[in-house]
Amino acid sequence: MLKQTPLNATHRELGAKMVDFGGWDMPVNYGSQIEEHHAVRSGCGLFDVSHMLPLDIKGANVRAFLRRLVANNVDKLQVSGKALYSCMLNEAGGVIDDLIIYFMDESWFRLVVNAGTAEKDLAWMEKCNADWGMGLTLTPRRDLAMIAIQGPDATQALNEALPGVDQITAALKPFNAAAMGEMFIARTGYTGEDGFEVMVLAKSAPFFWKALMEAGGKPIGLGARDTLRLEAGMNLYGQDMDETTSPLESGLAWTVDLKTERDFVGRAALEKSEVTKQLTGLLLLDKGVLRSHQKVHTKNGDGEITSGTFSPTMQQSIALARLPLGIAPGEEVEVEIRDKKLKAKVVKYPFVRNGKVLI
Amino acid sequence: MSIPADLKYTPSHEWVRVEADGTLTVGITHHAQDLLGDMVFIENPAAGRTLAKGEECAVVESVKAASDVYAPVAGEVIAANADVEASPESVNQDAYAAWMFKMKPANPADVSGLLDAAAYQKLVESEAH
What ipTM was assigned to the predicted interfaces of this complex? Predict the structure, then answer.
């Protein structure tokens, strides 16, 4: 039996094509994935991301717990509502999950973790909580639904759907959130566009979704979510990094705080490890489509594509690839696709931000 | 569900039209394009290539995934449709107009081994459950 979000019936009413997404019955598209992609870049798209898990951690020692639990430094969070992106590592320095941490107050932090890793994450956090004698309460918030509203018209759509929210949306800076009762509004996203991720009580979600559609928001499936995040150069857990890969070889060094003396899980392993690979962008010069696990030949040895797709914005195939160090943007490499070797160029990513091609 | 009665089908979701001169025109079904989603890349076999029945001979790629296209019967490719390679989305617009390649069957009688519309309809329905 697949798990359902509070918006399952809504997706079905809208004629979505539903797929099994890691045990969740989710919309992959509502018609054309490419049209949905363009709708987000040029207007406003709505995503049901309720399969992801909000998790409240409460207690006197939350900050101390998170200082040790995650690779980024929660001491960067000093203002209520501020968000931080981080990896949670295992002792070997591999990535258990990537997550967002919101600082609410000194006894309350809210985390949002991936759907497929939620149970594993929770078990790991509870173990750390017990082992370190932290005495915290971890509460999974499956009573909340989460809707992402993304695109240049996102603010307008949210303001129209939720009268009175305009003062909050006007004041909310990127990577900040505000709580209003059980409603939680964050200026975050996974598309490279301006927008919000809003948590509401599950029972309010269908009505809120319809109000957002009335305000011009277009429903967007997981298919376009993937092409949007890849154009935006954002990692996908399980593809671009996992428990066997180092964040330092996954384009995530910027999220690992090694500057302070703070001891965190995985730090010792990372400091001992030798970094030999890097995550780079690739642009396919020949015709075809780059896909994950295709082999990449470079002058410094072989690498592998971790995520690949056809970019609807660029009308060209793009990818993230884990390549040997020393391969610089501008260089050409060869990708094995079926029985052929096709030419690709190494590029700096993101590929697209705020509707503009950056390559 | 669009399954024209005058065409033949394969279990791997190709459609086949038997032309008056006995040559075959091949494409992928409406159901196949619906499963794959927006098409972005198509690679056809070259004219002159000899195909075994069931041989991987073309590739269709949507934004989502790549999928092989198989030869419905043994024979020789006599034409490939450059228009669908240039406009892969034409397969989404009308899968039965957007033919991929034409072939001359090695043995015209092999065509009788293909599915008719009713049998293909059943196959699609059984896959849905």
Answer: 0.87
